[in-house]
Amino acid sequence: MLEPKYIREKEWKGHQNPPFLKKDKDKVTVLFNFVEARKSFFLRSFFKRNGFQYEDLGDYVLEDVRWGKEYGNRMECNPMYFTGGSLLRNLFRIERETGLTKEEIVEKYVFVGGGGQCGPCRYGMYPQEYLKALDDAGFKNFRIIIFSTGFTRDPVHKNSALKIDMGFRLGMMFSMILADLFHAAECAIRPRAVDKESALNIIEEAQSLVNKAFEKRFYLFKLPKSLKMAGEMIASIPVKNEALPQILVTGEIFANMAHNEGNYNLRRFIMDEGCDVHPAFLTQRVMYDMWRMIKNYDRFVKYAERFSEKFKFFFVRIQIQSRQFFIEAIWDNCIKHFNPSSFGATMKFVDLDMFGELGRPHYDPEIFGGEGNLEIAEAIYYADKVDGFISSKPFGCMPSSGVSDGVMAKIMHDKPELNFLSIETSGDNEVSILSRVSMLLFKAKEKFNKQQEISEKKPQAKH
User: Fold this and answer.
1) Which of 13, 83, 260, 280 has the least CB density, counted as fewest CB within 10 Å?
2) DSSP conformation class of 402
3) Residues 123 and 251 occupy one common structural domain
4) Does some domain include residue 339?
5) DSSP string of 160-218?
6) pLDDT score for 153
7) How confident is the model at residue 115 (pLDDT cuts 50, 70, 90)?
């Protein structure tokens, strides 16, 4: 009998991720990016206020997919390829520009990013996938700090230079909200601007104005005035007064909200084709995550065997709901000063309880993963309210591609007026995807024009 070539002597603990310690803070540069450029643009202010050396890696580009596929595992979704590939591309750029060795780069840099919690597809293994790619590329023991909503990551070292504490979460929350404000501004202005290039420059100037206030230590007192000024700048942009076809884009967080080459600049393409596209708010996505957690803890409270367990779960539930109220208060306050209605933008959260019940007959809202039940509820709710509905998700995304799209056949049967398109982004099929989007937009414009003709033919009420 042949002896086995390999005998496991101990359990494999995964790829190592050393802590980023306080003693290293002054000699380490924090690299970061997050979903799209506006989110990381405002996140810079947190690192500046707290004395970190930092570099914003900015938007994802198509080349990131190649880097991600070269060093990542096979059949990963493109958010993983883009995120890991962007980091690798920039590390090799730093090596080339500075002359540092890979070992020196590992000592002098650390990466901070979001995500890593996807359960259905990768069982929460995103951080290990990133570390595997870094190790294979020669950056062994490179440090990454992954933060996410509602999922506990590895315990933070007590002497960590960067803790995911209240200060960081507050900075991240404001970064999301401010980015959402300016995303809504672009969605409102871009398709109607008399001079698109000039309009986008003004939005960037307004964005920089707000960021200067956000950089201040007492930014809570500085932001209201800067937001008011920024809103007035945007409201002064000359726009055409015309109705346009309404398009809603939904789906997995990255494919829906990247606003860069990670999703083929999907919303900008739609706007430049002469349509209105509903903005996608990352803040709303965070509220959705918290809503799902509350539903989980409601179940924990209901089925807990001991009173002490019930009390513990109920206490956590109250904490999550308190965070929701706090985020809503900051959101409403920022909107009050920014005044998006002055330039035609609408910024309202959807009623998640109502949407949960709306989609329940087709997709139980407590089957968590991706945006599954929310996507179904949106299709039902907006079927007769928009001219086009696009579901965007990464290639092979289990909750969206395998589950919600399967349910959509039933929704389209029940709602024949829904002009629906499902697209899977892989990062390297832009021409194919945008040609399909163009077909949907063509049908949306036809639908919109017919409705306009019907409206014009209706007799006007006499006064």
Assistant:
1) 13
2) I
3) no
4) no
5) BSS--SHHHHHHHHHHHHHHHHHHHHHHHHTTTBSSHHHHHHHHHHHHHHHHHHHTSTT
6) 47
7) low
